[in-house]
Design a protein that fits this description.
This protein has 173 residues and is mostly helical. The protein is built from five helices and no strands.
């Protein structure tokens, strides 16, 4: 079982990064044991699949930290969107490849954050943000990523319960 970061963490950067890693692991744990059909199928009216969600989260990290914070040019930053503007895994990509891409992006994100300060902001040249708008600090970006992960972890609680009846434990409730 994955446990939350220790309550003794007092440094804000350590706390944010520990919780981000916690939620990355939570997402993967919720999908562990689902077969290919469950990963690629949807039980929801909106039609998104668990595998699409993992692909989406890899792109979310890439958009906010590589394209956003670093200001690097990123080919197809919205690559998680298909023609209908919904999350889409490229045709022919295996579940293992999607999970590997997710893990690779998480590792890259960890490197970026380790080399930055919470007060760092993207370069003015970053194409991620509309010109003339305030640029978010890394602290804001990490908090945004955390809320996105927490929300999607809740979505996966429902998906998993519908798939096989697994109900998540409620640690510390």
């Amino acid at each position: 079982m994955i446990t939350e970061p220790p309550k003794t963490l007092g440094d804000p950067k350590d706390l944010l990064t520990a919780y981000l890693d916690y939620y990355r692991a939570v997402i993967l744990e919720k999908l562990a044991g689902l077969d290919e059909d469950e990963l690629r199928g949807s039980r929801l009216p909106t039609g998104w699949t668990p595998l699409q969600l993992v692909w989406h989260l890899a792109h979310v990290e890439r958009r906010w930290l590589v394209w956003g914070l670093l200001g690097e040019n990123v080919p197809d930053p919205w690559g998680d969107r298909g023609p209908d503007e919904r999350w889409a895994v490229p045709e022919g990509m295996t579940a293992a490849e999607v999970f590997a891409r997710f893990e690779e992006q998480c590792a890259r994100s960890r490197e970026i954050v380790a080399g930055a300060e919470l007060t760092d902001v993207p370069p003015a040249s970053s194409k991620r943000f509309e010109e003339g708008t305030p640029l978010p600090a890394l602290s804001w970006i990490l908090f945004h990523l955390l809320q996105e992960y927490a929300r999607h972890a809740g979505h996966l609680d429902i998906v998993r319960e519908l798939a096989d009846g697994t109900v998540p434990e409620q640690p510390g409730a």
